[in-house]
Write a structure and sequence with these properties.
203 residues, mainly alpha, Recoverin, domain 1, three-stranded antiparallel sheet, two-stranded antiparallel ribbon, globular, EF-hand-dom_pair, EF_hand_dom
Length: 203
């Protein structure tokens, strides 16, 4: 099984992190996805000050099972950059790995290979390992994702597992899951429909 393909071209956007935010890297994203990203920022901004610090980001990475040591945090907080992230900069950072995705049908097919119970959910630890460690096939324009990029992809669509159409597998699995149907619908502008479909499957 191979994970969804993310073009190596997205790496060229990384220098944008050296700015102070507000560059509009997220202007191509759908409104449902932007809404989810804004909501995740509000959760991290527990003091409601309009900015999040390294401790909040470290907690988010830890919850996703990603590296949250100081070197990993440098991806979010460059040495000469600001000590806090405002909403614009947060959206810039999260949107970078979403800039050059495979076609939706290709992404769906890749995710479905990991969906063992047809529930629209994938064990986060399994998907994270695949995204971080699966080498590209010969001839593919693809590079491995960084911890930061994986965190930005998974963070808004991760939660507790619900039962799927093959309930046994779902009932035995533990830990958080990535709801890929919501993710695919959000990047295509149809987040609400995906949520309804997943609810129907879960029921």
């Amino acid at each position: 099984m191979k994970p969804p393909i993310f073009s190596a071209q997205q790496k060229s956007a990384a220098p944008r992190l050296n700015g102070l935010g507000g560059g509009g890297a997220y202007s191509h994203l759908s409104q449902p996805l932007l809404h989810s990203m804004r909501e995740s920022f509000e959760v991290l901004d527990s003091n409601n000050i309009g900015a999040i610090n390294s401790a909040a980001v470290a907690d988010m990475l830890a919850q996703l099972g990603l590296d949250n040591n100081p070197s990993a945090l440098k991806d979010f907080f460059p040495l000469n950059g600001p000590a806090q992230l405002n909403l614009a900069r947060y959206l810039d950072i999260l949107s970078i790995p979403l800039g050059e995705l495979s076609e939706p049908d290709e992404i769906r097919a890749a995710f479905e290979a990991f969906d063992i119970d047809d529930s629209g959910q994938i064990d986060v630890s399994v998907l994270r390992d695949a995204l971080l460690h699966t080498a590209p096939q010969p001839g593919e324009d693809q590079t491995r994702l960084s911890e930061r990029e994986v965190a930005s992809i998974l963070s808004d669509f991760t939660g507790r597992r619900t039962f799927g159409t093959k309930g046994i597998a779902a009932g035995q699995a533990k830990g958080e899951v990535f709801r890929y149907r919501d993710f695919i619908a959000s990047i295509g502008g149809g987040g609400g429909a995906a949520s309804e479909a997943e609810t129907a499957v879960a029921g």
